Amino acid sequence: MQNSTWKLDPWTLLLWVALVSVGLVALYSTTHGPAVEYLSASVQDNFTRQLLWISVSGVTIGGLLLFPVRVLRYAAYPAYAATLVLLVLSLAVGVEVNSTRAWLALGPFRLQVSELAKVGTVLAVAQLLSGRRAQTTQDLSYALKAAGLIVVPAVLVILQNDLGTALVFFGLVPIMLFWSGLSLSVILLMISPAVAGYLALLSAPVALAFALLFTGGLWWLSGQRVIAVLAATFTAGVTAVVSLVLSKILQPYQVKRLLSFTNPGAEEFRQGVGFHLVQSRAALESGGLWGTGFMQGPQTQGAYVPEQTTDFIFSVVAEEFGLVGSLVVLGLLAALLLRLITLGADVKHPFGSIVAAGAVGVYLIHIVINIGMVSGMLPVIGLPLPFLSYGGSAMLANTALLAIVLNTHMRREDLSIYGY
Description:
With 420 residues, the protein is mainly alpha-helical. The chain has 17 helices and three strands. The chain has a three-stranded antiparallel sheet. α9 (204-222) runs antiparallel to α10 (225-249). The longest helix has 34 residues, at 313-346. The model is unreliable at 1-6 and 133-137 (pLDDT under 50).
C-alpha cells in the first residue's frame, strides 16, 4: 500500500479548528459572564467539559486516520449492529434527561448513544451502496435496504422520545440515496411529505396548493404518471393526517408547543416554548450589525434565552458578535459542507464518496433545523449546532465522521488502485 499520509486535507482540519474555537468562545461567554449566576453548578462546568471532549475528539481524528479504509469497511456492519444494541440498552436502562431516555451512564460521564448511531448508520449504508452505486435506479431493492438501515435506528430514537435526532436519520435517506445514483424525481417524491407536513402546520390550504403544484411539476419532470400519482397521494395524505392530528389527537398543550413557532409572540404561545422563541429572536435583533460585545449581550447574559450552551448557542454568537459574526459562522459551516462535498467527489471509490455524502447530510440537517429553530422559522425540537454547541457525544460523533471522510480522501489513490 502506498504511503498516503501527505494527502491529508488541511483545509477541513482548519475549518474544524475554527468552528470548535468559535463554539468555545460562545460557551465561555455563557458560563463565565454575568449569566453564570443564573446557571446550575453542572452547567457552569460545561466549558471545561467541552475542552475535554474536544481533546478526546482530536485524539479520535488521529486514531481514525491510522486505519486502512478496508478496516472501516469491514467494521461498518458490526459498528451499526453495536449502536443498535446500545440504543436498545438506553431504552431499557438509560438515563432520562429532559423527558428523553437517550443516555447511558458511564461513571461520571453520560453517552448519548443516538449520536454514535449516526456514525454507524452512515458507514453501514455506504458499505451497502458502495457495490451498487450506478445501479440503484434500476435496482430499487438496494435503495429500500439502505432506507431500512436508516429507519431502524430512527424508530428506536423515536421510542427514546427524541424526535429531533430521528429527523436527522430520516433526512439521510434521500441525501445518501441521491448521491448513490437514485433519480431526482424519486428523491423529490421522498421529501415531498416532509414539505407538505411543514406547510400543513402553517395552513392546510397552502399545503394542498403545494400538493397540486408539486404533483404537476413532478409529472412534467419525470414523465411518469405513477410517480405523479404517488406524489399526490403522499402530499395530500400527509396534509390530511397533520390536520387530523392537530384537531383530534394531540392535547392542547402539545398543539401549542408545535405551533408556537408560527407566532411565538401571540398571547396563547407567550409562555413556554413561545417565550423561548421570542427571547431568541430578541437576542438576534439585539446584536445588530456588529454585536453588543463579548459577554455583553443583554438577552443572553440575562439568561432569558434557554439552553444557551446547547441548542441556542447561535443566539449568543448573534447577539454578542452581530450579523457580521453570524455570517462568519454560517460561512464557516457552509465552507465545511462544500469542502466535504469536494472531498467526496474526489474519491472515486463509492464507499468513501457515500460516507462523505452521509457526513454532509448529518451536518446539513442539524444546521438547517438549528438555525431555523433559533430564528423562529421552525418548531423547537432540540438539535445542537455541529461543532459549536456543548455536548461531548455530539462533538465526538461529528468529529469521527469528519475523520473518516478525511481518511477515505487521504487514501483515495489506494482505494482506486486496490479497491479497498
